[in-house]
Design brief:
The chain is α/β, with parallel strands linked by helices and 237 residues long. 38% of the residues lie in helices and 20% in strands. One of its GO terms (molecular function) is phosphorelay response regulator activity.
Length: 237
């Protein structure tokens, strides 16, 4: 049902956000998040992954195409581009970098709502009842409930810590640099981010590791970044 589907609307124009929210609500959607910039959109995706994103191309700060790339590091959900640009080159670029649909402005809000329905039907979201859970070793991240467990024990993480753990678990077994982690979770340029990331990693280890001074789950790869160990991988002795 539409009530189960999480939609993120990203547009810097308040009137367009309002019109789209109204049209979506009239079509039965109720879980709608609004963002006015690419940075807000990336942060919203990291907090609670949407099922469908409606994304304006001409955004202040990072534009819609760059925002799409960053969202794709978090989720593979359908992305519908909105743009005043109707050139074929822009349409092709939008689809090539990960967009699923492209609507030129001016548009009918009702048409966009029906395109959201079409994407939901295509992926079989209409009657979803299961949870989306990703795992790395004993660590499980329930993306619907926004919880993290180590074995059977729930870790009491802040919203930002949850975002960091989810991103690293989604990339389990791979090294993620501090810059990439910061940009994905905070949705901002990573200049001068090292201390911020290190403090959050330390706090997370205090909550998920048996011995935070000798981590076995969330590892530091010297000079490169961080990674979560996978189920078949052992932490170095």
């Amino acid at each position: 049902m539409e009530n189960d589907i999480r939609i993120l609307v990203v547009d810097d124009e308040p009137d367009i956000r309002r019109l789209l929210k109204t049209a979506l609500t009239q079509e039965g959607f109720s879980r709608i998040t609004l963002a006015a910039s690419g940075e807000e959109a990336v942060s919203a995706c990291a907090t609670c992954v949407p099922d469908v994103v409606i994304l304006d191309v001409m955004l202040p700060g990072i534009d819609g195409f760059e925002t799409c790339k960053r969202i794709r590091e978090i989720t593979q959900c359908p992305i519908i581009f909105l743009s005043a640009k109707s050139d074929e080159v822009d349409r092709i670029l939008g689809l090539a970098i990960g967009g699923d649909d492209y609507v030129a402005k001016p548009f009918s809000p009702k048409e966009v709502a029906y395109r959201v329905k079409a994407q939901a039907r295509r992926l079989g979201m209409g009657g979803r009842t299961g949870h989306s859970v990703v795992m790395a070793g004993p660590v499980s991240v329930d993306e619907d409930a926004c919880t993290v467990r180590v074995g059977q024990d729930e870790a009491e993480l802040t919203a930002r810590e949850f975002e960091i753990v989810r991103y690293l678990v989604r990339n389990a077994g791979r090294v993620v640099s501090r810059d990439r982690l910061y940009e994905a979770v905070w949705g901002e340029d990573s200049f001068g981010c090292d201390n911020t990331v290190m403090v959050h990693i330390r706090h997370i280890r205090e909550k998920i590791e048996d011995d935070p001074a000798d981590p076995r789950l969330l590892l530091t790869v010297k000079g490169l970044g961080y990674k979560f160990v996978t189920g078949g991988e052992e932490a170095p002795s």
